[in-house]
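Colleagues,

Please find the record for the two-part complex below.
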Amino acid sequence: MSDVGEKSTVEKVDPPDNAGGPLAGQEPVTTGPTSGARTPSGLRLDIRLTILIGVLIALCVVGYVSQPETFLSESNISTMLRLAAAIGVVSVGMTFVIISGGIDLSVGSMVALASVWMTTLATQSYGPFVMVVCALAVGVGAGLINGLLIAYGRLVPFIATLAMYASARGLAERLSGRSTQVVTQQGYLDFFRGDFLGIPVLIWMLALVFAVGWVLLNRTTFGRRTFAVGGNAEAARLAGINVKRHTAMVYAIAGLCCGIAALMVVARTTSGASTNGMFYELDAIAAVVIGGTLLSGGRGTLIGTLIGVLIFTVVNSIFTQNNLETDIQNIAKGVIIVVAVLLQYGTTRTRKT
Amino acid sequence: MSEPGDVLLTMTGIVKTFPGVRALDGVDLEVRAGEVHCLLGQNGAGKSTLIKVLAGAHQPDGGEITWLGQPATLGSPVAALRIGIATMYQELDLVEGLSVAENIFLGHEPSAFGFTRRGHMRAEARKLMRRLGHPEIPPGREVGVLSAAGQQLVSMARALAHDARLIIMDEPTAALAADEVDNLFRVVADLTAEGVAVVYISHRLEEIRRIGHRVTVLKDGRTVASNLDAATTPTSELVNLMSGRMVETVFPTREESADRGTEVLRVEGLTRASEFADVSFTVNAGEIVGIAGLVGAGRSEVLETVFGARKADSGTVTVNGKRLRPGSVTAAVQAGIGLAPEERKSQALLLDQSVASNVILASLPEYARIGFTDRGRALRDSRSTLERLDLRPADPRREVRTLSGGNQQKAVVARWLVRECKVLLLDEPTRGVDVGARAELYRLIHELAAAGVAVLLVSSEVPEVLGLSDRVLVMREGRLLAEAPASELTEAAVLDMVMEGSEVMA
């Protein structure tokens, strides 16, 4: 797909096209002094993505074999996706942050804070619309604080978001008095727990966030510059990109995603609590890394992240469906992270030789 | 567009100082539309700083810049690009994860409502690559998979995409093969025919002869000659203009060493693909051997390979008759080799730790008692070594960060002295060291040699190599070109050898 010609119809694009930072060119690339590289002809398959999809399918097969009647039933798939929704949305924001060369440890705490703030008695008294606005504003605000501290305060992302990790959850506990705040606005629950065209609203939201995120990352100036900021910040600066402002905005996007995730968590559990979003940072980072995004920044894909999220969701479902202990589940997750990354590492290493 | 021949840019009396260094000390430059203006000068003459001033990356401390007759300030890289000055840096400033087209238009992407106009961008990129004679490089290809030459072309296309009227090229042929160079020159000729001016920096005189129109020569941060004719000015004149640098320091006279003559280090046929090939030399006890050459000639790489930090493809390193295991720093250190690397701060020192910790770093096992470091003995030994090197203050507890450049260098040397090393490799030992401290380092290097240490040093400053060494090796493009006693060489002769395409060959 790298050769699109000069026709005006180039907007038609196969998914692996440019979304695939590190995946270009498994065809031999002439690295001799005579030229850059030859145009590949024909369809370009993406090794990394293929491996990931293969792993996902393999896990589905395992699930199906263990529970042939229920695993691939419509209700189980729907349940899996609804459970994946919040972590999936958080992972979208995390993908942006990691591609920009940073890390966000505070996503789980921001989800907790947004979920608590939108469900206080005071907020709920204004109705569902204000609750939604509140969650999104809290997310963006907290994310922006991260971004400003990192971009202009020159804090290392790890430290700035570690501070937010601690204090956002602390504030959530303070606001809620550590109690679970039940949602009394039936309108809110009716909408977010409902279906649209037979598919749960939460799944629509997940799809929408991924679609918007994909367009933002791959089709807008902002998205492409995010790769530049993470891949070579000095080059980005010399090209006239405002690297600081860009960095701040990326963390604000991560915060916004946490606000959306809070909406989903509140809808699913019908309450807001300071214990929401526990370990989301770890799950999101794991999904992003499995998806092939480099922790050092500059390369990554949202499609990979989506599959990473789905892999974990399927693993969870396999374990719950078969009534297996969570301790084994955690061990399995760890093994999957290592295996997935090693497999991809193998493909990148052979790529350059 | 200005007519060819119009004065595009003038720089008058440009001054730029960095802490401790006056990098530019009155540079004058005049560039006309449609010309290839070559900048010549030794390493450290101020070419890189001048480029950065032109590119808006450094702000000058004094002097005037005019652009098309109007006073101009180049306050930022964007400001420079906006008035039409684009820079191709020697170290490529590309984003590997982005496509060719995205790199070309980075920072000024064609867009509509925030969406990149990919079709438009790719079509434009394709046109630019065709103009550069490489239509086969697809605009959608990821830059990270291109060869160095391919990346160079992307960098060039980026300069063209800005509709630059002045393009600065910093050693653009360094990464290119011969046929690629021809292609580059064709592009440069096309550009100048359109009235674009090129400031061209190269160490290869033959290139300057082929495409250059006028030459400006820098020395010690000053313009020593300007507007020479590139085609007809004799090589000897150019070389003479570049050499004869003010020697700020008097080199101490050499005392004869006690046991001069026994061979300590022998390097035979050392080769590393695309870095250097077939390098052979010996260094005797008490002898100082200097390697002269330009940056990129492979000097530092040779040193690091001798030290085992890089693994040789072929060839051997022998110390006192014993062959070293290739690619093993441990083996080299145990055989008695020490290296004071070029990038002192990042490659040698633990800046936040004490001088003593830094000094005993390579000898920790010797200072261990049942697994614990004998701090008392470490401090005592460090202190006596510091006194021997006259490192001030001679306080082994002080943080290395607080020391001056010269004293930091001494701390690195001290590390190898406590190990009683037999071969000391010094890579640019006086870089970042102020003038007064240099004389001390020179004296120290002589003392070490007098004590029987075999010293192999690399310096980009030809007078330093000549003034310090007993014997000089000249390297160019990864090859050992000549070897001669320092007393038989002059600065002009060495410069002549290291410059590509000069008439005198070794």
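The CA atoms of residues 2 and 17 of chain A lie 7 Å apart.

Comments are welcome before we finalize the supplementary table.
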